[in-house]
Amino acid sequence: MEAQHSKPRPPLSLAAGIIYLNPAAFAGVKQTLQTLHIASIIGVPAVTPKDYAYSRSAMVAALFGGDGQQHTHAMSSNEIALALSHRKALRRLAQERTRWAAVFEEDAALHPKLVPTPQTAIGLLRHALTRSRFAYLGACRPTCPASGSASGCFAYCTHAYALERVWAATFFDDVYCSEDVLAGAACGSHCRTTHCHTDQQFVRYFKRVPNASVAGYWLVSPDTRFHRGLFYQVRNRNQSGTQLAGEATYEAFKGKRVITAAGRRLDVASST
Q1: Fewer CB within 10 Å, N- or C-terminus of the chain?
Q2: Within a domain: residue 263?
Q3: Domains in the chain, number
Q4: Residue 67 within a domain
Q5: Is residue 264 part of a domain?
Q6: Of 111, 112, 136, 114, the residue nearest 123 (C-alpha)
Q7: Distance (Å, whole) CA 242 – CA 255
Q8: Cα 109 to Cα 115: distance, rounded to the nearest angstrom
Q9: Which helix (H) or strand (E) element contains residue 262?
């Protein structure tokens, strides 16, 4: 009697977009995602200030529309570019035909406890995607109900998250503009007085619209106990956030705070 073999499960109906500056980093994240049998993996070159001739007003206009005169409280040009990169990735993923979409930054890494058992990671990912419209696949300082897998979470960091693919087309505008629209103001108006970094906007939105969960909440990052999830953010020593937005450091260079990104120094105070 011939042995019966179970049919392999179909690829996870998820399209993943990887935002990257470094092609080698992109290749590393792509290789990891391939072990999870994801249906589609897309490279999304990161937006940079150079794409806008280093014009801050042009970048703000691209982010919010209008004449670009909206203030972006405490955001560097690189951080505005990161927000534009997420919008670019989401709009690209909206064109796919999968059930879900996911965005990864180039410094996202699968939790080491899951690397030897990708099937476990796939199971946790499937579970998270069927529990809520949005799932943080990695989260910094998450706040959740009693169970992190339940809806009602909000967290910092945007290095890995997933959502219903049909939502990807409008998600960025929902996060950045809905608060202003409800107040009868133009998109981005609240950024005159409020921090509008991408992860902080996610927190503001999901505090108002509690339909986010954290996939693998019980997994603690090997880098810091305050970070949870299936994917953690690989950080250099003293780094305060994703490398895509530059590393905020204090140097003796003219006594000013500078952003170090792609080997260049960018004065945070610059507004050209």
Answers
A1: N
A2: no
A3: 1
A4: yes
A5: no
A6: 114
A7: 24
A8: 10
A9: none
Contact criterion met (CB below 8 Å) for 242 and 107: yes
Phi, psi of 122 (to 5 degrees): -65, -45
pTM above 0.90, yes or no: no
Place of tokens 């780094």: 239
Cα(100)–Cα(160) distance, rounded to whole angstroms? 13
Domain hosting 38: range is: 12-245
The DSSP 8-state label assigned to residue 95 in this structure reads T
Q: Which residues contact 49 (CB under 8 A, 6 or more apart)?
A: 56, 59, 77, 78, 80, 81, 266
User: Which two structure tokens, joined as six digits, stand for 51?
Assistant: 């794409």
Q: Is 105 helix (H, G, I), strand (E, B) or coil?
A: strand
CA distance 126 to 85: 26
268 assigned to some structural domain: no
Which residue, 104, 111, 103, is CA-closest to 223?
Answer: 111
Cα–Cα distance for residue pair 88/82, rounded to 1 Å = 10
Question: What's the DSSP call for residue 152?
Answer: -
The Cα–Cα gap between 197 and 244 comes to: 13
Sheet strand arrangement including 257-261: 247-250, 257-261, 264-267
Tens digit of pLDDT per residue, the chain (272 long)? 445 555 666 788 999 999 999 999 999 999 999 999 999 999 999 999 999 999 988 998 899 887 666 667 678 899 999 999 999 999 999 999 999 999 999 999 999 999 999 999 999 999 888 888 999 999 999 998 865 556 789 999 999 999 999 999 999 999 999 988 888 988 888 888 888 899 999 999 999 998 899 999 999 999 888 899 999 999 764 444 566 665 433 233 233 333 333 333 333 333 33
Alpha helices for 118-190 (secondary structure H): 118-131, 168-182
CATH number at residue 42: 3.90.550
